[in-house]
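lol so apparently i was supposed to do this last week
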Amino acid sequence: MARGAIGTGVFLLLLPLLILGCAQGEKQDTGASERVRLVFKHGRIAGDPRLFHQLLRDFEQQNPGITVVDETLPSSTDEQHQFYIINLEGSSADFDVLSMDVIWIPEFARAGWLRDISHLMPLQERGKFFPGPMQAVTYRDRVYAIPWYTDAGVLFYRKDILKKHGFSPPKTWQELVATARAVIDKEPGLYGFIWQGKQYEGLICNVLEYFWSNGGEVLKNELPVINSPENIEALRFMRDLLVTYSITPPLVTTAIEEPTRHIFGNGRALFMRNWPYAWNIFEQEGSPVRGRVGVAPLPSFPGKTSASTLGGWQLGVNRYSRNPEAAEKLILFLTSPTVQKTLARTIGYKPTRTSLYRDQDLVREQPFITGLHDIFMQARPRPVSPYYMMITQVMQPEFSAALAGIKTPEEALNAAQKQIEHILGVER
Ligand code: GLC
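anyway here it is w/ alpha-D-glucopyranose bound
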């Protein structure tokens, strides 16, 4: 009797676990008749999310038995990174497919958080993607994600206003200053040049473009060289955009991509540095700047070469996913030539597959895509290292302090140099 009571008690205690177990069993993608519920995490979709959801429904139709639930994270890459660190560190199986910034893969792969998906990417297939993103998804010769869409910093300009005042798109930063100064003196209410200056990852992307286009580097032969004269000059120039030349409004020091895109899209700025996604939104019906926006490579310092930061997002499978095979199907679908083409036409995500830059429809509808091909080919990666997140967390407050005038560029870069040496264990 007593034994029976204990037995029932144990059974009742285990009941919730058993129910949970059954629920999880339902999710597994082993049995053909069971429904798989795939959770796909990604940042906020630019533009109209309905077009994106339609693609997910198409995938479900092609793969009966799989339902895709997509869950949106905040648009800032730093906040998304935070989410993954906490959840993957806790071996969370709450999501199956994740969209990852180009800078995270070495860190995530080293931590063992991603499924090795090299089998999905035979050598011949790897050659079809831009080399930068392909390098970013490869860690110790294994592939951990498939490049989904690519990014590189570009200069957006108002074709109509430049023409009206007899200017062409600037080739050097100094020309950009002179042009913006001359135009905004005659067009009150118009901002000269906006970019992303908040203390976050986007600021690093912006600052590196000035360093590189002045011949500077962050690491050389894996050693930090961030406090070089070239970098000090470049950072001082950025501060001057705000204070000396006053072509950049102070709001830029708290701005990320979308606020700057809104300002430019409302016709309130002459030049903007941003990622290419913005162009499709500018060209939508009803947009105040439709037909008036040009895209050019970023300027450089005189006699130096223009440089764009390589950005972009990659799809990988959570190592703890209970549905790895279905997850692989979804990432193959989303990175396929057809879907990349649709994403480029609808929401402006730029393909990671090089052949699409010769696609007749895309070239006709978005002629500047041909020029983007070369920019993406040459785009520069941020330091590729499992310690990148530590390095960026050192650079962000230092760059921000220099822009705000709290530190001189030299002080900020000397401080960054010391801290990066410490992270990398460099002896002095
Ligand atoms: C874009 C880029 C990404 C970068 C981020 C910075 O999303 O694709 O690589 O880190 O902007 O804000």
